[in-house]
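Example with several molecule types.
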Amino acid sequence: MIRRPVVLITGASGEIGHGLITRLSKDPDIAVITLDLRPLPPPLTPLVQQQFLGSILDAQMLDRILAEYEVDLIFHLAALLSTRSEFAPVTAHRVNVEGTLNMLDFAQKQGESHGRPVRFLYPSSIAIYGLPSLEEKMRAGKVKENEYTTPTTMYGCNKLYCEHLGRYYGNFYKQLAAETLSGKVDCRCIRFPGLISAETIPSGGTSDFAPEMIHSAAKGEPYACFVRPDTRIPFMAMPDGIDALLKLARVSRERLTQTVYNIGAFAPSAEEIQKVTLRAFPQATITTKVDVKRQAILDHWPADVDDGAARRDWGHEPHYDFDRAFQDYLIPTIRQLYARR
Ligand code: AKB
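Resulting C-alpha coordinates for the full complex:
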Protein backbone atom coordinates (compact mmCIF):
# COMPACT_ATOMS: atom_id res chain seq x y z
CA MET A 1 0.00 0.00 0.00
CA ILE A 2 1.28 3.48 -0.83
CA ARG A 3 0.81 6.05 1.89
CA ARG A 4 -0.10 9.52 0.73
CA PRO A 5 2.32 12.43 1.48
CA VAL A 6 0.72 15.21 3.53
CA VAL A 7 1.27 18.04 6.01
CA LEU A 8 -0.27 17.39 9.44
CA ILE A 9 -1.70 20.18 11.61
CA THR A 10 -2.74 19.40 15.19
CA GLY A 11 -5.04 21.83 17.02
CA ALA A 12 -6.09 22.95 13.56
CA SER A 13 -9.42 24.41 14.68
CA GLY A 14 -7.68 27.07 16.77
CA GLU A 15 -6.65 30.58 15.80
CA ILE A 16 -3.30 29.79 14.18
CA GLY A 17 -4.74 26.74 12.40
CA HIS A 18 -7.39 28.93 10.81
CA GLY A 19 -4.83 31.19 9.11
CA LEU A 20 -2.36 28.41 8.38
CA ILE A 21 -4.85 26.17 6.57
CA THR A 22 -5.99 29.09 4.44
CA ARG A 23 -2.39 29.93 3.46
CA LEU A 24 -1.34 26.32 2.79
CA SER A 25 -4.41 25.72 0.64
CA LYS A 26 -3.08 28.27 -1.87
CA ASP A 27 -0.27 25.86 -2.77
CA PRO A 28 -1.69 23.16 -5.06
CA ASP A 29 1.23 20.84 -4.27
CA ILE A 30 0.40 20.64 -0.57
CA ALA A 31 -2.24 18.34 0.91
CA VAL A 32 -3.19 18.95 4.53
CA ILE A 33 -4.67 16.63 7.13
CA THR A 34 -5.76 17.84 10.56
CA LEU A 35 -6.17 16.45 14.06
CA ASP A 36 -8.33 18.26 16.58
CA LEU A 37 -11.03 17.52 19.13
CA ARG A 38 -13.23 20.12 17.47
CA PRO A 39 -14.29 20.03 13.81
CA LEU A 40 -12.94 22.74 11.53
CA PRO A 41 -15.22 25.72 10.85
CA PRO A 42 -17.24 24.82 7.70
CA PRO A 43 -15.43 27.24 5.31
CA LEU A 44 -12.12 25.48 6.07
CA THR A 45 -13.39 21.93 5.60
CA PRO A 46 -12.97 21.79 1.80
CA LEU A 47 -9.41 23.09 2.14
CA VAL A 48 -8.09 19.94 3.82
CA GLN A 49 -7.80 16.37 2.60
CA GLN A 50 -8.99 14.72 5.80
CA GLN A 51 -9.96 15.80 9.31
CA PHE A 52 -9.24 13.41 12.15
CA LEU A 53 -11.52 14.25 15.06
CA GLY A 54 -9.72 13.19 18.18
CA SER A 55 -6.99 13.78 20.70
CA ILE A 56 -3.21 13.96 20.49
CA LEU A 57 -3.36 11.73 23.58
CA ASP A 58 -5.04 8.93 21.62
CA ALA A 59 -2.25 6.54 20.57
CA GLN A 60 -4.58 4.50 18.36
CA MET A 61 -5.61 7.57 16.42
CA LEU A 62 -1.95 8.48 15.86
CA ASP A 63 -1.22 4.91 14.69
CA ARG A 64 -4.08 5.19 12.22
CA ILE A 65 -2.64 8.38 10.76
CA LEU A 66 0.81 6.75 10.62
CA ALA A 67 -0.62 3.80 8.71
CA GLU A 68 -2.47 5.95 6.17
CA TYR A 69 -0.23 8.93 5.54
CA GLU A 70 3.40 9.82 4.95
CA VAL A 71 4.06 13.01 6.90
CA ASP A 72 7.11 15.21 6.22
CA LEU A 73 5.94 18.33 8.00
CA ILE A 74 3.99 18.75 11.23
CA PHE A 75 2.61 21.95 12.72
CA HIS A 76 1.88 20.91 16.28
CA LEU A 77 -0.48 23.67 17.40
CA ALA A 78 -2.67 21.82 19.93
CA ALA A 79 -2.27 23.26 23.45
CA LEU A 80 -4.11 24.61 26.48
CA LEU A 81 -3.14 28.28 26.83
CA SER A 82 -1.82 30.06 29.90
CA THR A 83 -4.97 31.20 31.71
CA ARG A 84 -6.89 27.99 31.11
CA SER A 85 -3.90 25.92 32.21
CA GLU A 86 -3.84 27.61 35.63
CA PHE A 87 -7.34 26.29 36.35
CA ALA A 88 -6.40 22.72 35.39
CA PRO A 89 -2.62 22.35 35.65
CA VAL A 90 -2.54 18.55 35.57
CA THR A 91 -4.74 18.44 32.47
CA ALA A 92 -2.55 21.16 30.94
CA HIS A 93 0.53 19.07 31.59
CA ARG A 94 -1.15 16.06 30.03
CA VAL A 95 -2.17 17.92 26.86
CA ASN A 96 0.84 20.23 26.53
CA VAL A 97 3.62 17.84 27.55
CA GLU A 98 2.36 14.27 27.09
CA GLY A 99 0.55 15.33 23.92
CA THR A 100 3.71 16.92 22.53
CA LEU A 101 5.76 13.86 23.47
CA ASN A 102 3.25 11.71 21.56
CA MET A 103 3.57 13.97 18.53
CA LEU A 104 7.39 13.94 18.66
CA ASP A 105 7.26 10.17 18.86
CA PHE A 106 4.85 10.10 15.94
CA ALA A 107 7.33 12.25 13.98
CA GLN A 108 10.19 9.92 14.93
CA LYS A 109 8.23 6.88 13.67
CA GLN A 110 7.34 8.72 10.45
CA GLY A 111 11.00 9.62 9.91
CA GLU A 112 12.12 6.07 10.58
CA SER A 113 9.56 4.67 8.16
CA HIS A 114 10.09 6.99 5.19
CA GLY A 115 13.75 7.74 5.86
CA ARG A 116 13.62 11.56 5.74
CA PRO A 117 13.76 13.98 8.70
CA VAL A 118 10.29 15.20 9.64
CA ARG A 119 10.12 18.95 10.14
CA PHE A 120 8.31 19.59 13.42
CA LEU A 121 7.13 23.18 13.85
CA TYR A 122 6.39 23.97 17.47
CA PRO A 123 4.79 27.22 18.63
CA SER A 124 6.32 28.05 21.99
CA SER A 125 5.55 31.29 23.78
CA ILE A 126 6.78 34.37 25.64
CA ALA A 127 5.19 32.58 28.63
CA ILE A 128 8.45 30.64 29.02
CA TYR A 129 10.02 33.84 30.42
CA GLY A 130 9.73 34.85 34.06
CA LEU A 131 11.01 38.33 34.83
CA PRO A 132 11.47 38.56 38.61
CA SER A 133 9.94 42.04 39.09
CA LEU A 134 8.34 44.91 37.18
CA GLU A 135 11.50 47.01 37.67
CA GLU A 136 13.62 44.23 36.16
CA LYS A 137 11.11 43.82 33.31
CA MET A 138 11.45 47.50 32.41
CA ARG A 139 15.23 47.42 32.80
CA ALA A 140 15.60 44.23 30.69
CA GLY A 141 13.79 45.59 27.62
CA LYS A 142 14.19 43.10 24.74
CA VAL A 143 15.05 39.72 26.21
CA LYS A 144 17.20 37.13 24.41
CA GLU A 145 16.28 33.45 24.08
CA ASN A 146 18.58 32.34 26.92
CA GLU A 147 17.65 35.01 29.47
CA TYR A 148 15.05 34.83 32.27
CA THR A 149 13.88 31.33 31.34
CA THR A 150 12.11 30.79 34.67
CA PRO A 151 8.37 30.58 33.84
CA THR A 152 5.71 31.19 36.48
CA THR A 153 2.80 29.40 34.77
CA MET A 154 2.11 25.73 34.07
CA TYR A 155 1.79 26.59 30.37
CA GLY A 156 5.16 28.37 30.40
CA CYS A 157 6.82 25.38 32.14
CA ASN A 158 5.21 23.00 29.62
CA LYS A 159 6.34 25.03 26.60
CA LEU A 160 9.92 25.43 27.87
CA TYR A 161 10.26 21.71 28.60
CA CYS A 162 8.84 20.75 25.21
CA GLU A 163 11.37 22.99 23.46
CA HIS A 164 14.01 20.83 25.16
CA LEU A 165 12.20 17.64 24.16
CA GLY A 166 12.27 18.79 20.54
CA ARG A 167 16.01 19.45 20.76
CA TYR A 168 16.48 16.03 22.39
CA TYR A 169 14.58 14.17 19.65
CA GLY A 170 16.52 15.99 16.96
CA ASN A 171 19.99 15.49 18.37
CA PHE A 172 20.18 12.89 21.12
CA TYR A 173 17.22 10.50 20.78
CA LYS A 174 18.21 7.04 22.13
CA GLN A 175 21.86 8.08 22.02
CA LEU A 176 23.05 4.82 23.58
CA ALA A 177 21.38 2.53 21.03
CA ALA A 178 23.65 0.60 18.64
CA GLU A 179 22.28 2.34 15.56
CA THR A 180 21.88 6.11 15.27
CA LEU A 181 18.21 6.99 15.55
CA SER A 182 18.41 10.73 16.13
CA GLY A 183 18.06 13.19 13.28
CA LYS A 184 14.69 11.83 12.17
CA VAL A 185 12.89 14.76 13.82
CA ASP A 186 13.91 18.27 12.81
CA CYS A 187 12.28 20.37 15.51
CA ARG A 188 11.99 24.14 15.04
CA CYS A 189 10.41 26.28 17.78
CA ILE A 190 9.09 29.81 17.64
CA ARG A 191 8.42 31.70 20.85
CA PHE A 192 5.28 33.57 19.84
CA PRO A 193 4.26 36.92 21.30
CA GLY A 194 0.54 37.58 21.81
CA LEU A 195 -1.15 37.09 18.44
CA ILE A 196 -3.95 39.33 17.23
CA SER A 197 -6.21 38.02 14.50
CA ALA A 198 -8.88 40.05 12.74
CA GLU A 199 -10.87 36.92 11.98
CA THR A 200 -10.95 34.94 15.21
CA ILE A 201 -11.05 35.67 18.95
CA PRO A 202 -8.73 33.71 21.23
CA SER A 203 -9.81 31.95 24.39
CA GLY A 204 -7.90 30.78 27.43
CA GLY A 205 -4.84 32.99 26.97
CA THR A 206 -3.52 35.85 29.12
CA SER A 207 -2.56 38.07 26.19
CA ASP A 208 -6.24 37.93 25.17
CA PHE A 209 -6.95 41.43 26.53
CA ALA A 210 -5.74 43.05 23.29
CA PRO A 211 -7.78 41.02 20.77
CA GLU A 212 -10.79 41.02 23.13
CA MET A 213 -10.66 44.82 23.37
CA ILE A 214 -10.46 45.34 19.61
CA HIS A 215 -13.16 42.80 18.71
CA SER A 216 -15.53 44.07 21.44
CA ALA A 217 -15.11 47.63 20.18
CA ALA A 218 -15.85 46.53 16.60
CA LYS A 219 -18.97 44.66 17.74
CA GLY A 220 -20.16 47.67 19.74
CA GLU A 221 -19.92 45.78 23.03
CA PRO A 222 -18.47 47.39 26.17
CA TYR A 223 -15.16 45.92 27.32
CA ALA A 224 -13.56 45.93 30.77
CA CYS A 225 -9.84 45.41 30.23
CA PHE A 226 -8.35 43.10 32.88
CA VAL A 227 -4.87 44.71 32.93
CA ARG A 228 -3.37 48.02 34.03
CA PRO A 229 -2.91 50.62 31.26
CA ASP A 230 0.90 50.45 31.58
CA THR A 231 1.01 46.68 30.89
CA ARG A 232 3.41 46.01 28.06
CA ILE A 233 4.13 42.74 26.23
CA PRO A 234 5.03 41.98 22.59
CA PHE A 235 2.26 41.37 20.05
CA MET A 236 2.07 40.40 16.40
CA ALA A 237 -0.59 40.47 13.70
CA MET A 238 -1.71 36.94 12.82
CA PRO A 239 -0.59 37.04 9.14
CA ASP A 240 2.98 37.73 10.30
CA GLY A 241 2.74 34.82 12.75
CA ILE A 242 1.67 32.50 9.92
CA ASP A 243 4.43 33.88 7.67
CA ALA A 244 7.01 33.17 10.36
CA LEU A 245 5.85 29.56 10.74
CA LEU A 246 5.96 29.00 6.98
CA LYS A 247 9.35 30.70 6.58
CA LEU A 248 10.90 28.67 9.37
CA ALA A 249 9.34 25.48 7.97
CA ARG A 250 10.90 26.08 4.54
CA VAL A 251 14.43 27.19 5.40
CA SER A 252 17.21 24.60 5.06
CA ARG A 253 18.54 23.10 8.28
CA GLU A 254 22.08 24.36 7.62
CA ARG A 255 20.96 27.97 8.08
CA LEU A 256 19.64 27.36 11.59
CA THR A 257 21.99 28.05 14.49
CA GLN A 258 19.48 27.26 17.24
CA THR A 259 16.31 25.22 17.88
CA VAL A 260 14.32 28.05 19.45
CA TYR A 261 13.68 31.53 18.09
CA ASN A 262 12.04 34.65 19.49
CA ILE A 263 10.00 36.65 17.01
CA GLY A 264 8.80 40.21 17.58
CA ALA A 265 6.83 42.87 15.75
CA PHE A 266 5.53 45.57 18.11
CA ALA A 267 5.18 45.97 21.86
CA PRO A 268 2.49 48.51 22.82
CA SER A 269 1.11 49.14 26.30
CA ALA A 270 -2.54 48.34 26.98
CA GLU A 271 -3.19 52.09 27.03
CA GLU A 272 -1.70 52.52 23.55
CA ILE A 273 -3.87 49.67 22.25
CA GLN A 274 -6.93 51.29 23.84
CA LYS A 275 -6.10 54.65 22.18
CA VAL A 276 -5.86 53.29 18.64
CA THR A 277 -8.92 51.12 19.18
CA LEU A 278 -10.93 54.15 20.29
CA ARG A 279 -9.65 56.16 17.34
CA ALA A 280 -10.97 53.45 14.99
CA PHE A 281 -14.22 52.82 16.89
CA PRO A 282 -15.04 56.12 18.68
CA GLN A 283 -18.37 54.79 20.00
CA ALA A 284 -16.66 52.00 21.95
CA THR A 285 -16.75 51.86 25.74
CA ILE A 286 -13.50 50.53 27.19
CA THR A 287 -12.95 50.54 30.93
CA THR A 288 -10.32 48.96 33.16
CA LYS A 289 -11.05 46.32 35.79
CA VAL A 290 -7.75 44.81 36.82
CA ASP A 291 -7.65 41.11 37.53
CA VAL A 292 -4.66 41.11 39.89
CA LYS A 293 -3.87 37.46 39.35
CA ARG A 294 -3.81 37.57 35.55
CA GLN A 295 -1.96 40.89 35.81
CA ALA A 296 0.77 39.16 37.83
CA ILE A 297 1.24 36.64 35.03
CA LEU A 298 1.69 39.44 32.48
CA ASP A 299 4.05 41.35 34.76
CA HIS A 300 6.42 38.35 34.58
CA TRP A 301 6.36 38.28 30.77
CA PRO A 302 8.91 40.44 28.92
CA ALA A 303 8.12 43.94 27.66
CA ASP A 304 9.65 42.88 24.32
CA VAL A 305 11.87 40.22 22.76
CA ASP A 306 15.18 40.29 20.92
CA ASP A 307 14.52 38.48 17.63
CA GLY A 308 17.92 39.14 16.05
CA ALA A 309 18.65 35.42 15.57
CA ALA A 310 15.37 34.82 13.67
CA ARG A 311 16.07 37.81 11.43
CA ARG A 312 19.64 36.65 10.71
CA ASP A 313 19.07 32.90 10.32
CA TRP A 314 15.83 32.69 8.37
CA GLY A 315 14.83 36.21 7.45
CA HIS A 316 12.05 36.91 9.96
CA GLU A 317 10.68 40.30 8.94
CA PRO A 318 7.20 41.23 10.09
CA HIS A 319 5.18 43.17 7.58
CA TYR A 320 3.00 44.89 10.19
CA ASP A 321 4.28 47.33 12.79
CA PHE A 322 1.78 48.70 15.33
CA ASP A 323 0.27 51.36 13.03
CA ARG A 324 0.14 49.16 9.95
CA ALA A 325 -1.34 46.26 11.90
CA PHE A 326 -4.30 48.47 12.82
CA GLN A 327 -4.63 50.56 9.67
CA ASP A 328 -4.03 47.94 7.00
CA TYR A 329 -5.13 44.71 8.64
CA LEU A 330 -7.12 44.76 11.89
CA ILE A 331 -9.53 47.64 11.37
CA PRO A 332 -10.58 46.97 7.75
CA THR A 333 -10.80 43.18 8.20
CA ILE A 334 -12.68 43.33 11.49
CA ARG A 335 -15.12 45.91 10.08
CA GLN A 336 -15.87 43.57 7.17
CA LEU A 337 -16.22 40.58 9.48
CA TYR A 338 -18.92 42.17 11.66
CA ALA A 339 -20.64 43.90 8.74
CA ARG A 340 -21.23 40.41 7.27
CA ARG A 341 -22.87 39.10 10.45
C1 AKB B 1 -1.39 33.07 26.07
O1 AKB B 1 -1.73 34.19 26.44
O2 AKB B 1 -1.41 32.07 26.79
C2 AKB B 1 -0.86 32.92 24.66
C3 AKB B 1 0.62 33.05 24.62
C4 AKB B 1 1.25 34.39 24.77
O3 AKB B 1 1.31 32.08 24.46
N1 AKB B 1 -1.48 33.86 23.80
